[in-house]
Design brief:
The complex is a heterodimer of chains A (202) and B (179). Chain A has two domains: 8-98, RNA polymerase sigma factor, region 2, helix turn helix motif (Rna Polymerase Sigma Factor, Chain: A, Orthogonal Bundle), CATH 1.10.1740; 114-180, Arc Repressor Mutant, subunit A (Orthogonal Bundle), CATH 1.10.10. Chain A contains ten helices and no strands. Chain A has helices at residues 14-22, 26-45, 51-68, 78-96, 113-123, 126-131, 135-146, 151-158, 162-180, 190-201. Chain B contains eight helices and no strands. Helix content of chain B is 76%, strand content 0%. Chain B is an all-alpha fold. Chain B has two domains: 1-51, no CATH class; 81-177. Classes of the chains: A mainly alpha (202), B mainly alpha (179). Chains A and B meet through helix 2, helix 3, helix 6, helix 7 and helix 9 of A and helix 1, helix 3 and helix 4 of B.
């Protein structure tokens, strides 16, 4: 007599699924792949040269997670663990492919009006604009807002201190606000700039 | 004044949902128009980042998930052999530690003979002196206790610690070996 595997439903948390996968439940891991593949793809796409590399990295991340699922510690959020694996693989990938190929010359073609309209609509999206930022900024914004990670977990994923993460998030939001918001105050008023100098020197 | 500091605090408050801006920053924002604009802009960006979701245009997401799932092995790996090896290593280390503590306890020098034993072995010439000493019974008892205590107590403590350590290690092993 065989005992049927417990049903994997959408209402299970990531951590519960990871624990089920640790117990050998393959379906639980499939569910995790479905939940995270596109999110990881968006996260990694900014760190690599092309879509193919990003997809390969996502696959490699899940392969690694599959092999090491028993090492997952349920005191951490599953997303923190998975993103940490992904970020480290991205760093290794970057080191391996440090010499980037020269991009092929772009052939000028007249723009399609529909395409132009689509791009204008897309440009209004905050995440489309975020993609034009420094990849590190994008990465932090992604973890903070899409994954809703606390600063502590973000610092763990990107291997930086909490203060560094806070400072970079501050800059990233500022850079984005500069693009999005009309009348964003670019500079600090002269009086305050002097004060800032005094404070930083003192 | 201090706009840069207040802007940093405004931004920092966004990263910690439970904590609002500090009171001095709130007061500053009410007075400084530039920082008010900054706070509004940042708040708008913050809300948009939290509410909007990027569209995954480059690749078909379900297809990517399916492809990854197909590439993964059919069964999750069994318990890594490293865990079993680690348990054996822990058991061996615990046993070694127990043996070491036991040998250390045995190799300590014998405690010095107690004053009472010396009294029994004393020659007849020494008896008067010793009799005088024994007259003050309490004093002699206290002195003899003090004299025999250092090494004796040390060994007793060592043995007690060894027993406690052994019990602790056995408890730990029991916990770890429980599936």
């Amino acid at each position: 007599m065989t005992i049927p595997a417990p049903p994997i439903t959408d209402c299970l948390t990531d951590e519960a699924l990871a624990l089920a996968a640790q117990a050998g439940n393959r379906a639980a891991f499939t569910q995790l792949v479905e939940r995270y593949s596109s999110r990881l793809y968006c996260f990694l796409r900014q760190k690599v040269r092309n879509n193919q590399d990003a997809e390969d990295l996502v696959q490699e991340t899940f392969m690694r997670a599959f092999q090491k699922i028993r090492l997952y510690d349920s005191r951490w959020r599953f997303s923190t663990w998975l993103y940490t694996v992904a970020a480290r693989l991205a760093v290794s990938h970057y080191r391996k492919h440090r010499e980037r190929p020269v991009p092929a010359p772009v052939v000028e073609t007249p723009p399609d009006p529909q395409d132009v309209l689509h791009r204008q609509e897309e440009a209004a999206q905050v995440w489309t604009l975020a993609r034009d930022l420094n990849p590190d900024y994008f990465q932090l914004l992604w973890l903070r807002y899409q994954e809703e990670m606390p600063i502590k977990d973000i610092a763990h994923v990107v291997q930086r201190t909490r203060l560094q993460v806070r400072v970079q998030l501050h800059r990233a939001r500022g850079a984005l606000a500069r693009k999005l918001v009309d009348g964003y105050p670019e500079a600090i008023p002269a009086e305050s700039a002097g004060t800032r100098q005094t404070v930083s020197c003192g | 004044m201090f706009c840069a500091i207040h802007r940093w605090l405004i931004s920092r408050a966004l990263d910690d949902g439970r904590r609002a801006q500090p009171a001095p920053t709130r007061r500053h924002v009410q007075r400084c128009a530039e920082c008010r604009r900054f706070a509004d802009a940042l708040d708008r960006v913050h809300r948009r980042l939290a509410s909007e979701h990027p569209v995954m245009t480059e690749t078909a997401a379900p297809e990517l998930a399916r492809r990854i799932d197909r590439a993964l092995p059919a069964h999750l790996p069994s318990a890594p052999s490293g865990v079993g090896r680690l348990q054996w290593l822990q058991a061996a280390a615990a046993a070694l530690l127990l043996v070491a503590v036991f040998i250390a306890a045995l190799s300590l020098p014998e405690p010095a003979p107690t004053p009472a034993a010396e009294f029994a072995q004393a020659s007849p010439n020494d008896r008067p002196t010793l009799n005088r000493l024994s007259a003050s019974g309490d004093l002699l008892l206290a002195v003899s206790r003090r004299a025999e205590s250092p090494m004796h107590q040390e060994i007793q403590h060592l043995q007690k610690h060894a027993a406690d350590t052994g019990r602790f290690i056995v408890d730990c092993l029991d916990l770890r070996l429980t599936p």
